[in-house]
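Step 1: inspect the first sequence and its tokens.
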Amino acid sequence: MQKRIVIIGGGIVGLATAMQLHEKLPDVKIVILEKENDVARHQSGHNSGVIHSGIYYKPGSNKAKNCTEGYAKMLRFCDEQNIPYQLIGKLIVANDEKQKIKLDQIYNNGLNNGLKNIKVLKKEEIQNLEPNVRSKYAIHVPQAGIVDYKLVSQKMRSCLEGQGVEVLTNKKAIAIDSVHQVLRVACEDESLYEADFLVNCAGLQSDRICALAGINSPYRIIPFKGVYYYLNENKKEIVKSLIYPVPDPNFPFLGIHYTKLMNGQQTLGPNAILAFDRENYANQDINWKDLQSILSYKGFWKLIGKHWNVGLTEYFRNYSKHYFAFKASEMTPGIVATDLTESSSGIRAQVIDRDGNMVDDFAVLKAKQMIHICNAPSPAATASLSIGDQIAQMITEGIS
């Protein structure tokens, strides 16, 4: 009898996992169940579109391995599918000696992760590359680039469907059980799908899919909204490459940064504020189920106790465009509030453990006949094909 695999979640990680599974197990029937009316409707379609190089991540971590391997796989896929991308490079900037220490650590991470031609620049060299950036030191990362991950995801879907993989939309999973070694996924539209193996790639809903499957996960999704601004026409050419500040190693967000989009627009952001609805990108409306999930989790209150001061700064910056512009002008003098027009927002599925720690690396839970991708933060889009390959290898070993 033909083996069957069901993947819950049609974001880029779910699609990439299906691609790698089909390559390794071409005779297995693969079905993707996506609750929205199209793929990549959440994190995959609401990110900054950056092709990450892998420079930030601790050598040996899943992030480092998957990002560097996924980077090469992503570029190869884009080349094969004629998906446009631009390797415009990145500057990570530092303005004092304390930040320079962190910058050196990031540089060493990059070397240990196998990055070539990265370079620490001083003020004069920075000015030669980016005349409008004010910084004492910077790392230049030529590998970094931009792409449209919505388009990447659509191409993945097209490839999968051409290979006989079913990508089904409007299929919200509401129950998961097992009968005689067969997993059954019931959907809201009363359809039922049977499988020998299940993969949870549900992103913002991954903890809830764990619960449906009877998994006592040590994690909870705490959603954070990131709000971006467009730079107006007279300022959108202020920088040519991606410009990032030195990140706080204790906080998994990268701070305000400049990101060019494939359509030529320039964005600045994001802030990172608590979201009261996991899937509402337009405003701060409250989803009471999501709010209850946040407030009832002890790990959330421990998180607040650790990072309340950083949280207040993020809220102040979010609700004061003048303060946001002031912080941006520390990297590029001359940015004022009238240069900014609010654009898109994204919601990050930040995973918190029971001790209030932000889980920063990729996290996977394995159970009988199931794999749950509990945490796939940035650079998951860049790393998606490598993550998919890793998951496919686990399943190949378990299903054969």
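Step 2: inspect the second sequence and its tokens, then contrast the two.
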Amino acid sequence: MDPLIADMIGRRDALAKVLRLTTGLCGVCLTGGLLDLLMGCTRAPITGREQLIFFSEETENKMGIEAYRDVLRQFPLSTNPEANAMIRRVGERIAAAANKPSYDWEFALIQDDKIINAFCLPGGKVAFFTGILKHTQNEAGVATVMGHEVTHALQRHGVERISRGILEQIAQVGAIAGAATGRVDPRAVQGVLMAYGVNASLPFSRVQESEADYIGLRLMAQAGYDPHEAIAFWERMSGCPRNMIGKLCFRSGAGVPEFLSTHPSEETRIKNIERWIPEAMHYYNPPPDAPPTAPPSKAMG
């Protein structure tokens, strides 16, 4: 076996063992006490899922703000008044539903039609790239994306990934820890950007992605957007006709089995959303001029 490959496998196996140990300890430390403080174990809001997080929200927000400023220095902002107004309008409604007083919300639309992406950094710093608007198509589509991305920040998914990565990325720890002293190291900024899917991203886990879909659906409903619209958005994002989702189709990643991916397949994602819609509808607060809600979608076979 190639020595480099053997070394990589060895590091991966060692990290996996440590993570398994840490996960086991997390269940213990949630009972309280010194171990809770040492291990950084906590519960995710809303879902109650166990998380390993080594950073305070204050430190996390500070890093998020600095990272957001760094992104806005790198990219031009859109000058389209209608599109900017839509992003702000949807963002303010989602922010109200999120009910996060510690966040100082900001919404930006970045002019880049080639980038199909959006993100929300800690502290409520949201940005959409114009490239994703061809898939959102309307305010409900924007709300689907906004709710999903805001959930990643609310559930602290980025620092959860960074915290787990600390066991292997020792150099990054020193950089990020500097933020706690009031100094934000440039490497910490890059770490946060990667952790929240900006530029080169560390992939969110399937658990985090599903959590973002589930809570994001509730947020868009509370904000007055019909949760049924999320299905149409994810169908458009799949790039395939509905009856071809999950099958080979001329699109990137089409034949990759779900167990080899960090994201749920489009088929799994849409099935989950269909299953969660009845619950989300309990939170739906449509504006007075909203059209009738869409009928329940037929579940995929």
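Step 3: confirm your contrast with the notes below.
The chain has twelve helices and five strands. The radius of gyration is 20 Å.
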